[in-house]
Every structure is written in structure tokens, then in C-alpha cells.
């Protein structure tokens, strides 16, 4: 998959993504990553903005994974990857947003992290960035 992102002005420092914007981002990640089982996007306070399933469950699980990764590293991590016999979990932070996802076993970590960061970057830049990026991605 090739992703092309056009330069789109930022929404501004005070513009935070809405729950609707985050739900679009969740759908986009599930669309571009065939291995994704589900995910949650957390706001700067760690509250879930959107999730692919029950938002309370995903929010709690996402915060727990990030807290464990931070504790293990002794500082906030930019990303984490945990592999098990049953599947894999990923956490990615970009600016003040975080995305936590569960995937199938043997997911290509580098590719998934790239997709997760791209989705968060689009979300942080606002709906205009997502609208511009989607048609170009489909044309590629």
C-alpha cells in the first residue's frame, strides 16, 4: 500500500479532534490494515475518543497497555509492541493522541506501526487532511 499525504494546513493549536473524526480514523485503520482486530484512540487525558468495539472496555485496555509500557521503559514510550501466541498488541503515541490496537498473530510490526502513525497524523491534522489523503491513496 502506498500512502500519499498532501500538505494541508493544521486546524490550529486549540482544535482537538472530535469523536466523529476519531471514529473515521478507527474505520480507516481497520480498512488499511487487514490484520487489525480492533483499536481505540485516546485523547491527551487518556479518555477514549473512539473505538472499534465497546468504548469503555477498549479505553481501559488501551490505558493499561500504555501504562505498562511506560512503567517498563521508565518514561512515556512513543510506541510499544507485544506479541503473544494468540495475537499482537500495538500502542502508538503521536503528539497528544494515542492509538492502541490488537492484531492477528504475525502482523508485520513495521508496516502496522506505519499505518497507525499515518492514521493518527491524519486525525491530528484534521478532517481536511483525511479528505485530501483518501482520494490520493485510492489512486496510488
Give an account of the 3D structure.
The chain has 140 residues and is of the alpha+beta class. The protein has one domain (19-132): Beta-Lactamase. 45% of the residues lie in helices and 21% in strands. The protein has four helices and five strands. It has helices at residues 19-32, 55-73, 109-125, 127-139; strands at residues 36-42, 48-51, 79-83, 88-94, 97-103. The protein has a five-stranded antiparallel sheet, with helices on both faces. The protein starts with 18 loop residues before the first helix and ends with a helix. Residues 1-14 and 134-140 have low confidence and may be disordered.
- Share in β-strands: 15-25%
**pLDDT < 50 runs, ≥5 residues:** 1-14, 134-140
Would you state the CATH class?
A: Alpha Beta
Q: Under CATH, the topology is which?
A: Beta-Lactamase
Number of domains: 1
By secondary-structure content and strand pairing, the structural class works out as alpha+beta
CATH architecture tag: 2-Layer Sandwich
Query: Quick one: CATH superfamily?
Result: Dynein light chain 2a, cytoplasmic
Largest beta sheet: strand ordering: 2-1-5-4-3
Count of DSSP strands: 5
The SSE order reads HEEHEEEHH
Major sheet description = 5 strands, antiparallel
**How many angstroms does the end-to-end distance come to?**
8 Å
What overall form do the CA principal axes indicate?
Answer: globular
Amino acid at each position: 500500500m502506498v500512502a500519499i499525504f498532501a500538505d494541508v494546513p493544521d486546524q490550529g493549536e486549540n482544535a482537538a479532534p472530535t469523536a466523529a473524526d476519531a471514529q473515521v480514523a478507527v474505520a480507516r485503520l481497520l480498512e488499511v490494515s487487514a490484520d487489525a482486530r480492533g483499536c481505540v484512540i485516546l485523547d491527551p487525558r487518556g479518555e477514549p475518543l473512539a473505538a472499534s468495539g465497546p468504548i469503555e472496555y477498549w479505553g481501559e485496555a488501551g490505558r493499561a497497555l500504555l501504562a505498562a509500557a511506560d512503567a517498563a521503559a521508565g518514561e512515556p514510550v512513543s510506541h510499544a509492541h507485544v506479541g503473544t501466541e494468540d495475537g499482537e498488541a500495538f500502542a502508538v503515541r503521536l503528539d497528544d493522541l494515542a492509538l492502541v490496537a490488537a492484531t492477528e498473530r504475525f502482523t508485520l510490526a513495521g508496516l502496522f506501526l506505519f499505518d497507525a502513525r499515518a492514521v493518527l497524523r491524519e486525525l491530528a491534522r484534521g478532517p481536511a487532511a483525511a479528505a485530501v489523503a483518501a482520494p490520493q491513496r485510492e489512486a496510488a
